[in-house]
Amino acid sequence: MDIEAVIGLEVHAELQTRSKMFCSCPVVDATLSRPNSAVCPVCAGMPGVLPVVNQQAVEYGLRVALALDCDIPVTSVFARKNYFYPDLPKGYQISQYEYPLGVYGKLPIQTPQGEQVIRITRVHLEEDTGKLTHVNRGNDAFSLVDLNRAGVPLLEIVSEPDMHSVEAVRAYSSTLRALIRYLGVNSGDMEKGVIRFEANVSVRPKGSTSLGNRVEIKNLNSFRALERASTYEIQRQSDLLRQGKPVSQETLGWDDLKGVTFTQRSKEEAHDYRYFPEPDLPPLIVEKEWVDRVRANLPELPRAKYLRFQKEYGLSGYDASLLVNEQAVAAYFEQAVAVPGTKAPAKVIANWMLGDLFSLMNQTNTTIGDIKVTPAALVELINLVVLGTINNTTAKTVLAEMVSSGKTAGAIIAVRGLEQVSDSGVIADLIKKVLEEHSQEVDHYLAGKENLAQWFFGQVMRLTQGQANPKIVREELQRQLDALKTVPPE
Fold first, then answer.
1. How far is it, in rounded angstroms, from Cα 102 to Cα 349?
2. DSSP string for 198-235
3. Angstrom distances, CA of residue 318 to CA of 110, 111, 118, 224
């Protein structure tokens, strides 16, 4: 039986406001701050307190909703979502459900099968919960609650079940993460939990239009966990379907060490949460003038930049996608292309960035914002290669020193004497020396082992410590080898 996966994602992104969603407590880094140091009666859920909506959070939500091409209703309504959990001190969460901030959006993604458009069901605002830390010490087991995160503005982005492969899930999640980072509303730092994924996964016989029972995999905070959990669940459900067994609709957790999902609770439906309008908050009115102002201030978004890089700079779709994924990387590339006196086409600059520069960044665990090589310094190095001052091999060595020391290419080359040897007379003498010192290999070459030409080339480059102009070496080497072929045997 051919089986098709059906997957939708719920993405929770904390909004980078200074204060929380409904109170004036500061938003702090939960990984660095003392537990329960940013808590007040409102976010601690004390009786009689009144919430007040954070205007900046609403504006950030509008930025995302508009970037996802959502319709923005004039009126949205906050509701109480009732459920008891230790990290939810009020016993309910202020969220939106029936009347969200944005509806009916879309997000184009690039998959191995081409472009696909994922429909967005809704974008809505809510407050985050606290953080539980579970402790096991011998026979003692207990949980600690940190409410610093409770009440932090949270944007939930819910997709339609339009994805049918793990590759599409990865493309959607990474594309959405890049988008919200471009908008400046979320850092995208998954290690700190500021963006979390929940996958709704079901399977069905291929060709069927009905939906099978779905499971929801909660709180996946890395692309790797999202992919592994989705892959595992697709396989588990596919096995059940082939065996004629039902799939239980439930909420699952993911055990990253064991590589398996586990049951947390039976899957709730909307009516289980007993949604009703939050009595302490009036309806949120988003006037057209506000929407227009937010839309006018949106930056160039990743997809628009991706298309422009291909059209304006002649880049492939693959190269453009790598460059635009990080806003700072895209800016670095455009600054490099715009350096006065640049002698290399944009494609060459992209190749140096995506190849050697990225490799060195990975080795040194640095970001494009931390690296000591400025766009102008990189272009200076590339220009020296184009002009023949140094060759590619030497340039790679120079770039590595630039990354570690911050010195310019010109300074490094001058101190170390790395200028390329392009004197044809010098190169001809070196080749003659190599051929004379390896007469036996020359005889093998003349007897038909012509792949030895590459070995001779390597010997010449070794003599010059890689500084000889490879084009001149190859041409002169071939000339001398061809000349030996015409010499009559003694």
1. 40
2. EEEEEEEETT--SPPP-EEEEEE-SHHHHHHHHHHHHH
3. 10, 11, 20, 21
> What is the SS3 assignment for 142?
strand
For each of the domains in the chain, give its residue range(s) and CATH number, in order of start. 3-294 (no CATH), 302-416 (no CATH), 424-486 (1.10.10.410)
Map residue 122 onto helix, strand or coil: strand
User: Residue 451 above 90 pLDDT?
Assistant: no
d(CA 325, CA 176): 10
Instruction: Give me the DSSP letters along 145-173.
Output: EE-SSTT-EEEEEEE-S-B-SHHHHHHHH
What's the number of CA atoms in the CB half-sphere (13 Å) around residue 20? 27
Predicted local distance difference test score (pLDDT) of residue 431: 84
Write down the pTM of the prediction. Answer: 0.84
* pLDDT recorded at residue 350: 97
Closest C-alpha among 94, 226, 215 to residue 173: 226
- Identity (one letter) of the amino acid at 404? S
Per DSSP, the three-state class of 354 is helix
Single-letter amino acid, residue 424: S
Nearest to 378 by CA among 400, 389, 366, 362: 400
Residue 119 backbone phi and psi in degrees, to 5: -75, 140
> What pLDDT digit, counting tens, does each position of 134-167 carry?
898 888 889 899 999 999 999 999 999 999 999 9
